[in-house]
Design goal:
The complex is a heterodimer. By secondary structure, chain A is mostly helical. Chain A has one domain (3-31). In chain A, 78% of the residues lie in helices and 0% in strands. Chain B is mainly α. Chain B has one domain (11-385). In chain B, helix 5 (86-119) packs across helix 20. The chains are: A mainly alpha, B mainly alpha. The interface between A and B is medium-sized, with 22 and 27 residues.
Chain lengths: 37, 508
């Protein structure tokens, strides 16, 4: 693979999967605060 | 009208059900082929752009409308936009219902191929001709009807069990299973010799391609198709949310989760295609052959998934096992979306005054009968996919019209920025819903109409499989039907009062 493809892969997969993972973690944290609901 | 309404047991219940709604065959079947057809990496840019510029704003709006109105599509449009707009909700619902007819047929195919993979039948296909013939033979005989019956039967049974015991519980099993199966298939594909050629294809960006407007339109249609934005499905699930929900963050999760699954599916499929041809052909011809196969549409766009995947998997060790994994994942994806479609129709019938049990029986019967022609004729299937897949553009446009008529500031204040949100949308969201989304809709529709003149000489013919005429004819019939039923639907769902509380002060 060329360097530009490797960088694109890291940015795209990191952005989409990483963004999804961050949102999951934020929801897990919030759900642990029972006073919210 | 007043059904004792269930609620998802937790925020995760809603999110996992919504992910099930969004993740469907559009991710596993359509995305890898469209991605390849648009020559790889450059496609990712418009696809991701429209996730934020079309799909997520519409998902936010859908949750807001469903949560506020606590009614299905017809009731939600009537209650929020005005009784005279009930038909718009009816039109969106009809589009999704007509898609459900043939979507159940597709799930039947997936189920049939999963069983064939398990029994080893799929391993018999060693060339594209035999594989295509086998698919066409299966897809147009009584077995396709039987599996369609079975598929809608499963969907109706799940929905019959209710929101918590049926929809939520099924998706709690289906979605993690689907993610795991796709992960296994992707790891398998990426460890094949030559898989890096597939990755190179997937992530190499030819920047000049971004000047091609067709790439942007393909990105928009794929995003709309895959996330389910504008279908009314998320609006329906939002009817069952708890009072306090983080609407914006949930929508972001659904959109990004859906795209995560699409990328995983592409990683399972495209490296397999490239690995096979690079390991069997000289490099100078392998790329072209792999590209041809990855973009092979085949009958009714089934080429890559139902014709080539069985062949490719059979060429590698443990091919039967991984083929079964792939088709089981596809079946799980199809079922999780089919459940949402069945619930959408059921919810509307309940709003119209039916009990859930009767509504389910009606939905099962109508979807089964409505899907039979698609189960027996690939031409009919392709026509319906063409007409109603594109009809989703109109559905998305109607949501934008609803937001504008309700009032964009009111949308933010009364539907979206509510207690329970940690993320809110600012005034910029008015521009997204009021200008950007309608503009995207108009540009896409205009482009498509102009293009349609060149698809076939008989572009005007309403009985041609792929023509502008068939779309406009069928859309017009649907709109006339819903307009003529408008008052009846409004009276049944909202009562006979002339003015309802929510639309007071808004546009009637």
């Amino acid at each position: 693979m060329t360097l530009d493809s490797v960088i694109t892969m890291i940015v795209i997969l990191g952005g989409v999967w990483g963004g999804f993972a961050i949102l999951i973690v934020s929801v897990v944290r919030r759900e642990r605060r029972p006073s919210d609901y | 009208m007043a059904e004792g309404r269930e609620q998802f047991t937790s925020r995760w219940g809603l999110i996992i059900a919504a992910l099930g709604m969004a993740v469907g065959t559009g991710n596993v079947w359509r995305f890898p082929r469209i991605y390849a057809t648009n020559e790889g990496g450059a496609f990712l840019i418009p696809w991701l752009f429209f996730l934020f510029a079309w799909s997520i704003p519409l998902l936010i709006l859908e949750i807001g409308m469903g949560k506020k109105s606590r009614m299905g599509l017809v009731g939600a449009f009537g209650k929020l936009v005005g009784r005279r707009s009930s038909w718009m909700g009816g039109f969106v619902a009809l589009v999704t219902t007509l898609i459900t007819f043939y979507y159940s047929v597709v799930m039947g195919w997936c189920l049939r191929y999963f069983l064939a993979a398990l029994s080893g039948d799929l391993s018999r296909f060693t060339d594209a001709g035999a594989s295509q013939q086998a698919f066409e033979s299966f897809a147009t005989n009584g077995w396709a009807v039987f599996f369609h019956f079975f598929a809608i039967g499963i969907g109706a049974w799940v929905v019959h069990r209710g929101v918590v015991k049926g929809i939520e519980r099924a998706n709690r099993i289906l979605i993690p299973t689907l993610a795991l199966l796709l992960l296994v298939a992707a790891v398998r594909a990426l460890t094949l010799p030559g898989a890096e050629k597939g990755l190179q294809f997937m992530f190499h960006i030819e920047w000049s391609r971004l000047a091609d407007y067709r790439l942007w339109l393909e990105g928009l249609t794929q995003s709309a198709w895959s996330t389910g934005a504008g279908w009314g499905l998320l609006l329906t699930y939002a009817v069952y949310t708890r009072e306090r929900e983080d609407i914006v963050r949930n929508s972001l999760m659904i959109g990004l989760g859906n795209n995560s699954m699409s990328l995983l599916a592409a990683l399972a499929v495209l490296p397999t295609v490239f690995a096979y041809f690079y390991s069997t052909l000289p490099p100078e011809v392998a790329y072209q052959r792999a590209f041809d196969v990855a973009t092979f549409s085949g009958p009714a766009s089934t080429g890559l998934t139902f014709v080539w995947i069985p062949i490719l998997f059979s060429k590698f060790p443990f091919g039967q096992f991984f083929s079964a994994i792939f088709f089981l994942a596809l079946t799980a994806a199809a079922l999780s979306s089919l459940i949402a479609m069945v619930e959408l129709i059921t919810r509307i019938l309940i709003d119209l005054g039916m009990t859930r049990s009767r509504a389910i029986i009606a939905v099962f019967s109508v979807v089964f009968l409505g899907g039979v022609p698609s189960a027996l004729s690939l031409n009919f299937f392709a026509n319906q996919d063409w007409a109603w897949g594109l009809g989703l553009m109109v559905s998305g446009g109607l949501f934008a019209v609803a937001a504008i008529r309700f009032g964009l500031n009111r949308v933010r204040a009364e539907l979206i920025n509510l207690p329970g949100n940690e993320l809110n949308v600012g005034p910029w969201f008015n521009g997204v819903l009021g200008i950007l989304v309608p503009m995207e809709f108009l540009v896409m529709l205009t482009w498509w109409i102009v293009q349609s003149f060149g698809f076939t000489e008989a572009w005007w013919n309403p009985f041609s499989t792929f023509s502008l005429g068939t779309c406009l004819f069928q859309w017009a019939l649907a709109a006339i039907l819903m307009l003529s039923l408008n008052n009846w639907m409004a009276n049944r769902t909202l009562g006979t009062g002339r003015v309802n509380q929510l639309s007071q002060g808004g546009i009637q």
